[in-house]
Design goal:
Layout: H1 8-30, H2 52-68, H3 73-86
Helix pairs in contact: 2-3
């Protein structure tokens, strides 16, 4: 038995889904970053207790700094390991 090929309608639906997903992705990327222009994250002190969302915000910030070239790889890894070590695990 021969395998049935996809119909033109199915190809059109798949293309429409991909176009819709791409448009949604672009809209999401165009939104301003919540921490970019708003409040600046305070520097961390040793032993300071932070909630998980605050720690994740700091991790996100150091990722952006590394991507921008403001941090070296070694500094990035050290900061990331410190922050991940502080995350509370239930």
């Amino acid at each position: 038995m021969a395998v049935q090929r996809t119909s033109f309608e199915k190809l059109q639906r798949d293309r429409a889904k991909k176009a819709k997903a791409m448009a949604k992705r672009e809209r999401r990327l165009e939104k301003p970053d919540e921490n970019a222009e708003g409040e600046e994250l305070a520097p961390l002190e040793d032993g300071e207790e932070l909630s998980a969302p605050e720690l994740l915000a700091h991790i996100e910030r150091i990722h952006k700094e590394f991507d921008a070239g403001d941090l070296t790889f070694e500094d990035f890894e050290e900061l990331k390991a410190d922050l991940l070590g502080r995350l509370p695990i239930d």
